[in-house]
Amino acid sequence: MDALPDFDALARAYGHVGFRIERPCDVEPILREALSMKHRTVFMDFAVDPSENVWPMVRAGAGLTDMLMNSCDVDR
User: Fold this and answer.
1) Are 27 and 44 in contact (CB under 8 A)?
2) Tens digits of residue pLDDT in 13-33
3) In-domain check, residue 74
4) How far apart are CA 16 and CA 54, in angstroms?
5) 0.70 surpassed by pTM
6) Domain annotation covers residue 32
7) 38-72 pLDDT per residue, tens
8) Which are the contacts of 67, defined by CB distance < 8 A and separation ≥ 6?
9) What is the band of 74 on the pLDDT scale with cuts at 50, 70, 90?
10) In this predicted model, which residue has the larger pLDDT, 74 or 22?
11) 45 φ, ψ to 5°?
12) Max CA separation in the chain (angstroms)
């Protein structure tokens, strides 16, 4: 999405903490760091390949109680 702002820079501009996570191996260390900042507002921007399915999902027109939790739920 070319039109989205740089969320971590935007967070920092307002005095908060911002992270951009681009590699799966960075998720755990950044989550640990973010969780250690108990008295700060932390924004995390996860870069996800546009072709990836991101779980959980909600079908169009469905309610949150009908959430799909993984690919096995798609056929139900």
Assistant:
1) no
2) 999 999 999 998 999 999 999
3) no
4) 26
5) no
6) yes
7) 999 999 999 888 888 888 889 899 999 988 888 78
8) 56, 57, 58
9) confident
10) 22
11) -105, 110
12) 45
Q: Counting Cβ atoms within 10 Å, is residue 32 exposed (0-12), middle (13-18) or buried (19+)? A: exposed
Q: How far is the first Cα of the chain from the last one, in angstroms, to the nearest whole number?
A: 31
Residue 67, token pair as written in the block: 């959430």
Q: Enumerate the β-bridge partners of residue 46.
A: 21
In a domain, 65, yes or no: no
Contact 41, 13 (CB under 8 A): no
8-state DSSP, 68: B
Q: What angle do CA 47, 50, 53 make, to 5 degrees?
A: 95
Domain extent, residue 9, equals 1-49
* Domain count across the chain: 1
